[in-house]
Amino acid sequence: MEQITPFYEKKADCIFCGRNFSSTKLRSRFIKIVSYDTDFRPIYSHQEANSLLYKILVCPHCGFSSTDEFSASFPPFTKELIREKVTSVWVPQDFGGKRTLKDAINTYKLALYCGQLKKEKHVTSAGLLLRIAWLNRDTQPESEFRFLSLALKEYDESFSSMDYRGTQMSEIKLLYLIGEISRRVGDISKATRHFSMVIERQRQTTETKIVEMAKEQWHQIRQLQSH
């Protein structure tokens, strides 16, 4: 009997050039999350079964890189820009197989660049930056800090422009993330302010777990400040 491996090939069509390619994915039964960090980073029981490594689709033909969160449409003139900045300088390479941590970080950076050229939403860019920070957390604390700070700017932009509306990101989760990332980069007053905003909205939300997390972080900050 053939043994089922954690990996399988998924066919994809590039939303930019339209060509077909395959990309490695992980079977959900092999993905075991043991816990989450306070900014929602999943901790996996086995690092090789880390689904974060395979989130980005990189077209080997043109270099355009994206996630499922990218919109299918391209605003005016963005295709020309991507052609100039990405596809014309693309050295054919294939990220379709098994990925190392370094490979994965490179795919996120490619997707971030393509997303910015394509004028994707701030909330989409923020999610990519946050995941780059997660991937750096255990090995490169300086890089983690840098990408958390960049993610924070994009989440701030998303909140003020309200471009998170209509996505999977709720207002409560966004406010909590701004608070938690602020705490991690050392902006305690901003963190406290945003945790308070989550707590103030607790009667308007069903996301009680996030409200509890905000209360816990708020209390911890208050305890540290009282010492």
Could you spell the SSE succession in H and E letters?
A: EEEEEEHHHHHHH
Query: Major beta sheet, specifics?
Result: 2 strands, antiparallel
Question: Which bin fits the share of residues in helices?
Answer: 40-55%
Q: What's the end-to-end separation, in Å?
A: 63 Å
> How many distinct folded domains?
2
| Oligomeric description of these chains | single chain
Principal-axis shape: globular
Low-confidence stretches: none
Please give the number of β-strands.
6
Structural class: mainly alpha
Description of the molecule:
It is built from 7 helices and 6 strands, in the order E-E-E-E-E-E-H-H-H-H-H-H-H. It is globular and about 55 Å long. A two-stranded antiparallel ribbon has the order 1-2. It is mainly alpha-helical and 227 residues long. It folds into 2 domains: 7-169, no CATH class; 170-227, no CATH class. The chain starts with 6 loop residues before the first strand and ends with a helix. Helices cover 48% and strands 11% of the residues.
Write the layout of secondary structure elements.
Elements: E1 7-13, E2 20-26, E3 33-36, E4 42-44, E5 57-58, E6 65-66, H1 78-85, H2 101-117, H3 122-136, H4 141-161, H5 171-185, H6 188-200, H7 208-226
Helix pairs in contact: 2-3, 3-4, 4-5, 5-6, 5-7, 6-7
Features:
227 residues; mainly alpha; two-stranded antiparallel ribbon; two-stranded antiparallel sheet; 7 helices; 6 strands; 11% strand
What's this, in brief?
The protein has about 230 residues and is mostly helical. The protein contains seven helices and six strands. The chain has two domains: about 5-170, no CATH class; about 170-225, no CATH class.
